[in-house]
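In full, the data:

***
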Amino acid sequence: MEGTAETLTGTPARWWHALDDGRIQCDLCPRDCKLKDGQRGACFVRGAQGGRMLLTTYGRSSGFCIDPIEKKPLNHFHPGSSVLSFGTAGCNLACKFCQNWDISKSRDMDRLMDAASPEAIAQAAKAYGAQSVAFTYNDPVIFAEYAMDTADACHALGVRTVAVTAGYIHLPAARAFFAKMDAANIDLKAFTDDFYRHLCAGHLQPVLDVLRYVWHETDCWLELTTLLIPGQNDSEAEIRALSDWCVKELSLDLPLHFSAYHPDYRFDAPPTPPETLSRARQIAMDAGLRYVYTGNVHNREGDTTCCPGCGEPVIERDWYNILRYGLDDTGHCMQCGTAIAGRFGPFSVPFGARRIPIRMANPG
């Protein structure tokens, strides 16, 4: 929580209440920041002014880009489609190994170069042919009001919405937030509270509670990602415990992505060896999970979706390129008719591995 008082401007925020001592408490996430007027929360973008909570980054972004949906990563949500991605600044966790630190750790509001209303974002997605809009780069729960308003504007134009998040959010706020999302990839940092406390300044249990809620009580399609860091969260015992929990508490059909770490920000572990990811994938599949992937490494086998019925590859990928697609429009295997878990539709020419930066001032 920031101790220096300043004059804040922004849009009225939700999820807070007044305290008896004149401060206000943010109720968005488990950090429960208690703020005097002019103070910002740990996320840096929510603050107290005039006895109420403000979101200081509403309508301002660190940039927009058209990406493949597989980059989020989402492998079972309209494969091959394109997604308009954007974020703001700040984060409510403090991960020492952050891979997007220049955005999520930024406290320089001048980084927010593109201004765009929810309606302008939805219209840009439509103009560029993006089937979805993703709230990503930094964690969208901290700009939930902006993301939710944008989701409403997108849905009005038939555009889907995606949240890429660490899931560090109180359940009352999560109920409102995920009700607006068509899909989410939630980053499960590790499977020990010790890791969350010492490397993320957070706790594990609130994330597990959100994962259960999203999978069992919403229509939001969910995939899970764990960044494996050598010597920190990559032991066989921890990967087995994580996989067993997913099977028991979520589903055999939950897609799980193990991603490779590279040294960045304030942490200096060695890069994740490819064999660590392959080992983790095998452990998770041995636990019963049907769809387990590897990321941030070149591994065709770890990119490919196989049918749990006949075992045949139904979506063959090379990085973000789809080489072969063997599902019908309803997501059933063309070989044996088994339903593949996910959200599918008509498949045509895949977007591929392109990345197209755009400016909101000229969406045509």
In short: The chain is about 25% helix and 25% strand.
